[in-house]
Amino acid sequence: MSETQTSKSKRDIIVDALMEIAAERRWEDVSIHDVAVRAGLSLADFRDQFPSKGAVLAAASRRIDRIVLDGTTNDLAGEPAKDRLFDVLMRRLDAMAPWREALRNVFEWARRDPVSATALNSMALNSMRFMLEAADISSEGSTGHIKLQGLVLAWTRILEVWFDDEDTALARTMAALDRELSRGEMLVARVEDVSRLAAPLRTLARSVFNMARTRGPRMRRDHFDEETGPSDPDTRRTHTL
To answer: What is the domain range of residue 89?
Structure first.
């Protein structure tokens, strides 16, 4: 093992090897054995670190997350939410740049394999949750999942542009990102409006449900009393004779 390898963890070495090979061929043609050989590790070493190449890909995604999150500051704290998220996602693209060809091949694989696309969607949801938080945008609440899934779909469209954007300034990508965030901003605003309008109905529904739960045992007791005898004390004495 080289000096460079010994200075990095085995997990990092495996991640680097996977993304290096993924840039050279279709994702389906990348084998665990190939990755282990490229990493200079045994299959046993690979297995100690990861259960599958999908798990290695998830680790690569988390590494990108970490780079973005480590670079997050409060410099844009006073700016609109859209501008803060724009900055976060542009920094994410910068972090992804060394792996662009590998990610392109992963993206193409997901298009060919709907089942795998579902797994990648879950991975993207986890990443986008932290991208929203890095931009100081809540991913919780009644609209949190809509924000997350909407951002994942928007991110997919942005990547389609980014993969083919040869301009070092990424003008087309930045325009696509601005467009998608504006569209998402309007969608979230409408969803939040609907959520606010529906809030009284949800409160009423909870009240009715709680009332039904409270009255349920009482109604059963009343029914029991009706079957065994009325509440009048004298009548109850008659029934106990």
So the answer is: 53-241
CATH number for the domain harbouring residue 33: 1.10.10
DSSP H helical ranges for 23-80: 32-39, 43-49, 53-70
Per-residue pLDDT 10s for the chain (241 aa) are: 554 455 689 999 999 999 999 999 999 999 999 999 999 999 999 999 999 999 999 999 999 999 999 999 999 889 999 999 999 999 999 999 999 999 999 999 999 998 889 999 999 999 999 999 999 998 888 778 888 999 999 999 999 999 999 999 999 999 999 999 999 887 666 655 444 444 454 455 556 566 666 665 554 444 434 444 444 444 444 444 3
Count CA within 13 A, CB hemisphere, residue 47: 4
